[in-house]
Design goal:
45% of the residues are buried. This protein has twelve helices and ten strands. Strands 3-2-1-4-5 form a five-stranded mixed β-sheet. A five-stranded mixed β-sheet has the order 8-7-6-9-10, sandwiched between helices.
Amino acid sequence: MAKFFIGVDGGGTKTRALVVDANGNVLGSSLKGASNPNSVGKAAAKENLITAMQDALAAANVTEPVTAFCGISGVNDHRTAREFENKILQDGRIQFEKLRIENDTRSLCAAAFGLESGIVIIAGTGSKCYGRTTDGKEWETGGYDFHVSDEGSAFDLARSGIRAAVRAADGRGPDTILREIIFKELQIEEVGQISQRLHQNSLKKPGFAMTKDEIAALAILVDKAAVAGDAVAREILDNAMHDLVLMVKTVAQKTEMDKIKTLRVGITGGVITHEPCASLFKKALEKDFPGCEIFKPEEEPVVGATIRARAL
């Protein structure tokens, strides 16, 4: 049996690794660059992941084979996960008793609930929902990127807000203050300028298209308009919260957690943890799951990764 375990939380900007003993005591840690293969490429992601684990093992003064669980954003399917695992194993710089790579929602869920039943939902720039039961049933919804999914995310709110502003400007939709505040933020005067701003002339990087993060940052304008009493903005928020609740409801049904007396849901991400969306989400979820517990996980995802590593 392994005596030492590594938990890794890998994202689009940084990778954290923790080495723990069989009782969960932290022996060493490290922080490296991104290990999301979609953000930095497969080669850089592999290198950052390996060096993060190497440095954590060195800090812990551990030289024997270890068991590792790596929760990596951007690893969204089993084939990609197994390919990533094989590359790490074939590299040979670290000796493993066992190695498991999965999406980072697994680490987040373990950070929130340990190995007990629960659901986590992320609603920040993107969105995703994952749940796991004590006996190992699991399901996930959303998170297929902004082209086809990410409902209820900041990008989704911003896109809906821009669409509402454009429709109000050209007469296809109801009047809304989103037209004024979004056009002002984008520094445009008429609706015909919107395409050039979005696709050719970013305010942050003239001559280039606006990035996903730049567009997502406009979501706060939808929040402000809704708080100010704008009916169109409020409808956008209500629809977004309905989409997030649908994610949770689907995961609960697929894992049979909808039969649990008190459903527990961990929330994270700037959209869902701040007002007015936090209250709107809670109200919407309680319609389907009266008495549900909604909270922000206190432990970091990397701690959840060590829990999953020890469970291997």
